[in-house]
Amino acid sequence: xxxxxxxxxxxxxxxxxxxxxxxxxxxxxxxxxxxxxxxxxxxxxxxxxxxxxxxxxxxxxxxxxxxxxxxxxxxxxxxxxxxxxxxxxxxxxxxxxxxxxxxxxxxxxxxxxxxxxxxxxxxxxxxxxxxxxxxxxxxxxxxxxxxxxxxxxxxxxxxxxxxxxxxxxxxxxxxxxxxxxxxxxxxxxxxxxxxxxxxxxxxxxxxxxxxxxxxxxxxxxxxxxxxxxxxxxxxxxxxxxxxxxxxxxxxxxxxxxxxxxxxxxxxxxxxxxxxxxxxxxxxxxxxxxxxxxxxxxxxxxxxxxxxxx
Length: 309
Ligand SMILES: Nc1ncnc2c1ncn2[C@@H]1O[C@H](COP(=O)(O)OP(=O)(O)OP(=O)(O)O)[C@@H](O)[C@H]1O
Ligand SMILES: [Mg+2]
Hints:
Mean pLDDT: 88
CATH class of the largest domain: Alpha Beta
Strand content: 15-25%
Number of helices: 12
CATH architecture of the largest domain: 2-Layer Sandwich
CATH topology of the largest domain: Ribosomal Protein S5, domain 2
Oligomer: single chain
Bound molecules: adenosine-5'-triphosphate, magnesium ion
Low-confidence stretches: none
């Protein structure tokens, strides 16, 4: 029998669904993961084995094959631990295979079976909602996942709590979507003395969403003014907050795993490399420009930037 559960692979903020299949067959004991998995995924074998042992379960002395489909899509990251463990438990008949097949899961396992937070939970939860699947993630990511509307979110502290939930002996409470307390305090525009024209330009740029290029003698207060732009922007509306949180989620920068209504303010140093500014690279991670979406990208000492020259 093949047990399966859905998971995801990321390319930028795009989510590709991955089908995690586990088959336990007769033969020499082995545990193999196939399907273009990188090092972190291959190591998941040891974490899964240890996590099952922590629950008093040992792997059956049979041939266990884990396939991550589609096989031509590169799978990276530690978030495949949880779906592999769940499909394995379903194949071992510890969890009900039919129910498990209706879920999308991601999460990293510790050796003691507890679940560690991973990046990208919000876009994954939204992908699960689009396919009308349930969603399983680590407890720490629950408030982030709860932002996806209309899905069942299970956010257990550890693997055992999840097994007990499916057995009906300990029901998990659904996590609540939380907004971060907007503790973000931007410097105040009132600190700037005089400079009425520059302040007016700043206000117009903030109101209309325009770009600003500041030119002037050293010490004129250019950096001082620019740092105060984010503080006079209106708070994010719900759609904008979700859009930037998706980017932060994939970059692993979502603070406290909660959505924030504060405008992003990014001020990369001028020695920053081109990929760190515009994103990309092998793993297609968002760069400073994407992280400043709907907020302020402050390039202090603009002519010094080697990356954009
Ligand atoms: N209008 C102002 N009100 C209050 N403080 C000011 C004002 N203009 C300048 N300052 C003071 O001068 C300091 C230097 O200003 P700032 O660093 O913004 O200059 P700059 O125009 O960015 O210069 P540079 O071209 O050297 O980067 C500020 O930290 C602030 O203490
Ligand atoms: Mg300056």
